[in-house]
TrEMBL record:
InterPro entries: Peptidase_S54_rhomboid_dom, Rhomboid-like_sf, Rhomboid_protease_S54. It holds the Pfam family Rhomboid. Belongs to the peptidase S54 family. Residues 39-185 form the Peptidase S54 rhomboid domain. It is found in: Membrane. GO terms for cellular component: membrane. Keywords: Hydrolase, Membrane, Protease, Transmembrane, Transmembrane helix. GO terms for biological process: proteolysis. It comes from the Bacteria. PANTHER family: PRESENILIN-ASSOCIATED RHOMBOID-LIKE PROTEIN, MITOCHONDRIAL, RHOMBOID PROTEASE. This is Rhomboid family intramembrane serine protease.
Length: 202
């Protein structure tokens, strides 16, 4: 039986591949504020299942595969066993809300990709194992907590600077949702995180 992380990856890859072959489908799924204003609220979800290109898809799904499987069990007891799926989809939605509010009247704004959900999964993992090594560019080891600090700082900087097609705000809010939602669902995670943070050698 497939775990939910693998199932999400399979669905995302299939939808992304179909959207690349079908421009109409791609345009219907992408996040576009004027369309949302006209009642197409499903775009808050659908944009998270299409990607700009193969590298965008590969990076997000590679990250989700490793960290999703590591934390999926934490959410398993909730919502009849579908807690992780709901957590992931909600993260995609919540991560897009600030961008929508900022660009709701911007007819040139477009956004796509699973980064909000993937960021939520990554930051939830950091709560559980703050000193675990993450590999930057799959090569350079860096403690998870230091990566989190650098990630947030860079996302704020890049969002303020602008001039990029990457939705850095969604990354940041997705990560924030991952932290808050995980603590709300399992409050014991917070003291665990603090203890782990203060005991890097154990």
């Amino acid at each position: 039986m497939l775990n939910h992380t693998t199932l999400i990856i399979i669905i995302t890859v299939i939808i992304s591949l179909l959207a690349w072959q079908n421009k109409r489908l791609f345009n219907r799924f992408i996040f576009y504020p004027p369309a949302v204003n006209n009642g197409q609220w499903d775009r808050f979800v659908t944009h998270g299942f299409i990607h700009a290109d193969s590298m965008h898809l590969l990076f997000n799904m590679f990250t989700l595969y490793f960290f999703g499987r590591a934390i999926e069990g934490l959410y398993q007891p909730f919502l009849f066993g579908y807690g992780f799926v709901v957590f992931y989809v909600l993260a995609i939605v919540i991560a897009m809300v600030p961008s929508y509010l900022k660009n709701k009247n911007n007819a040139s704004y477009l956004s796509l990709g699973a980064s909000g959900g993937v960021s939520a999964v990554l930051f939830a993992f950091i709560l559980l194992a703050p000193w675990e090594s993450l590999y930057l560019f799959a090569i350079v080891p860096i403690p998870a907590i230091l990566f989190a600090v650098a990630y947030v700082a860079y996302s704020i900087y890049a969002d303020r600077r602008g001039g990029s097609n990457i939705n850095h705000m969604a990354h940041m809010w997705g990560g924030a949702f991952g932290v808050v939602a995980t603590i709300v669902l399992e409050p014991r995670v917070l003291p665990h995180f603090i203890n782990a943070l203060l005991s890097p050698g154990f």
